[in-house]
């Protein structure tokens, strides 16, 4: 297997007035291409902070992060945003869809920032993805006309539109009933069997158990040994 992510003694400390709040403390971790990994741990343990760094939305304050062998610290802002757009897909607990855009328009949006995709392909590509997530009949629905599970499916279609190799999901089932939550997990794991790497933050042990590997984060430290 190929190594996708390597963290070495990664730290993230937030300044709080005069003092500093260490949130991630010397995290070391490797993640292989195509893995499905769950991150669990109590509220406030640093899960979202870690995911933001992995997804290049935030910078570590110490240690190293290599993504596909590239030292993330050495990337310019522009290079980071390129990697975010082309290689990463995000899924959030509250779906983060744009309320006055249809399902189709929400899925088209990230393609507008990807010059490799001709605009003549936007519509067909978005339609195909919405069909893939079971929403071929809801292309023109607004988020408010969709159930939570359906909104999360739109968000997944949107996350997939630039064919990311890494999917980052922060409590993707947190706002869903267990039935629709499970179908979202099924979908994410299906994507992982097709070659995407999936990193999923969850509170739900049943969800974590379905991933190939789980890391427990407590107070900014990985507490289980299987790194
Ligand atoms: N931007 C920030 N500024 C200051 N403190 C932060 C910031 N983001 C997160 N924190 C703090 O870091 C800790 C971990 O937060 P977070 O990563 O959101 O935890 P989790 O996702 O595990 O619930 C919390 O104490 C939180 O208050
Ligand atoms: Mg969180």
UniProtKB/TrEMBL annotation:
Gene3D superfamilies named among the record's database cross-references: P-loop containing nucleotide triphosphate hydrolases
InterPro entries: AAA+_ATPase, ABC_transporter-like_ATP-bd, ABC_transporter-like_CS, ABC_transpr_LolD-like, MacB-like_ATP-bd, P-loop_NTPase
Pfam families: ABC_tran
Keyword tRNA processing: no
Record bears the keyword Transport: yes
Keyword terms of this UniProt record: ATP-binding, Nucleotide-binding, Transport
GO CC annotations on file: plasma membrane; transmembrane transporter complex
SMART domains, alphabetized: AAA
Annotated ABC transporter domain residues: 5-227
GO molecular function: ATP binding; ATP hydrolysis activity; transmembrane transporter activity
Family of this protein: Belongs to the ABC transporter superfamily. Macrolide exporter (TC 3.A.1.122) family.
PANTHER family xref list: ABC TRANSPORTER ATP-BINDING PROTEIN YTRE (PTHR24220:SF648), IMPORT ATP-BINDING PROTEIN (PTHR24220)
Name listed for the protein in its UniProt record: ABC transporter ATP-binding protein
Annotated organism of origin: Aliidiomarina haloalkalitolerans
């Amino acid at each position: 297997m190929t190594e996708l992510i390597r963290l070495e003694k990664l730290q993230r400390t937030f300044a709080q007035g005069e003092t500093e709040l260490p949130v991630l403390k010397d995290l070391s971790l490797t993640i292989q291409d195509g893995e499905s990994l769950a991150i669990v741990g109590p509220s406030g343990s640093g899960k979202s902070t870690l995911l933001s760094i992995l997804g290049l939305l935030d910078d570590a304050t110490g240690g190293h992060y290599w993504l596909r062998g590239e030292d993330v610290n050495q990337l310019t802002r522009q290079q980071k945003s390129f990697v975010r757009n082309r290689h990463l897909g995000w899924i959030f607990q509250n779906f983060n869809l744009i309320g006055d855009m249809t399902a189709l328009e929400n899925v088209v949006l990230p393609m507008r920032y990807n010059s490799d995709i001709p605009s003549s392909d936007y519509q067909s590509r978005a339609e195909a993805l919405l069909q893939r997530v079971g929403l071929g009949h809801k292309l023109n629905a607004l988020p408010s006309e969709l159930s939570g599970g359906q909104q999360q499916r739109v968000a997944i279609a949107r996350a997939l539109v630039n064919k990311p190799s890494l999917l980052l999901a922060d409590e993707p089932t947190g706002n869903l009933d267990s039935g629709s939550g499970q179908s979202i997990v099924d979908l994410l794991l299906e994507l992982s069997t097709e070659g995407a790497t999936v990193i999923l933050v969850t509170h739900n042990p049943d969800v974590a158990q379905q991933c190939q590997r789980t890391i427990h984060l407590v107070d900014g430290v990985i507490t289980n040994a299987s790194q």
